[in-house]
Amino acid sequence: MKVIQVGIGGMGNAWLSAVQRSPQVEFAGFVEIDADIARAQAKIYGLDKSRIFDSLPGALQQVEADAVINVTPPQFHREVTVMALEAGLPVLQEKPLAGTLEDARAITAAADNTGVLCSVAQNYRYRPLTQTLKLVLESGELGAVGAVAVEFFRGPHFGGFREEMPHPLIVDMSIHHFDLMRHFLGGDAKTIQARSWNPPWSWFAGDASASVQIGFADGVQVAYTGSWCSQALETSWNANWRFECERGVLLARDDHVTIQRLLRVKEGLRGLANVHDEPREVPLIKMEREGQDYLLQEFYEAVTQGRPAATTAQDNIHTIELVFGVVRACKCGLPVRL
Ligand SMILES: NC(=O)c1ccc[n+]([C@@H]2O[C@H](COP(=O)([O-])OP(=O)(O)OC[C@H]3O[C@@H](n4cnc5c(N)ncnc54)[C@H](O)[C@@H]3O)[C@@H](O)[C@H]2O)c1
Asked: Stretch 69-88: mean pLDDT, rounded?
């Protein structure tokens, strides 16, 4: 399968490497609007400079491609992805599906109208930690989930669009954790209460901290606290998770998974008391491919063999609705229903 990668700086590095590692996918061409980045990346990755174009229409005229990988910043997602879909080319699209709800709906409508695949790179789903949590939850060992607490604290200095945009934490980062909530709980968010703020020392223009309460189907409540301007003792990018379940607790702390099960309830001297087994660390599962490699292979199989892709635009629009629902709840200070 031959692909055109649009945007080869920044996160484009991860996709250049993933395609170069793939035995099934190769490059038809590239689109990059920054000539310095184009020159530098051509040298680092040994790219054919004659196949680097400064616009997608230019690339589409000059090279034969089967698909497009869109790694541009969010404000360009709609323009690039809709153009590719309308040209009949399936798109593997970096998250977020788009920078606004309106753009995300336009991309989903284009995928519906053209019948061409648009797959969204929610790479956090395809990591050993998150796959291990999903397996434990699906095994039924701990019974139903009643509540989830998620904590995410980091202090990255990215520069670029993230430090200028409104709600950088929620729109650019928490989107991964919100998408994971949908993945783990197997349903969509129904209600949201949220507050966001910017600590005085924040280097982001938009709010870098948030506290969010999300109600999922079946009444499961998720309490999410996060910050992108934490100054020390950072959590993992995957966040820390605590699942309160019917028959025990599942924890992810610093990328280690632990479970403790309720064995029985006994009669004690002071009334009833829960009896637990010893907390047990769950080894992380081994994955043949992770992150971008997993997504690229899934996209390849979907395009060439018609196998279903998990995070299509039509599915991912629910993650985007949750993200922008949280933004709306932060702005209005009132509960929001989705
Ligand atoms: N999944 C993840 O873990 C993850 C991590 C980082 C970034 N991302 C996503 O990747 C996307 C890109 O983010 P980034 O950090 O690489 O941004 P960036 O600004 O660092 O890099 C974007 C690249 O695209 C180029 N570009 C911009 N507009 C273009 C256009 N219209 N046509 C062609 N090239 C264009 C830029 O010159 C640059 O080389 C965003 O949607 C971001 O949210 C995802």
From this structure: 97
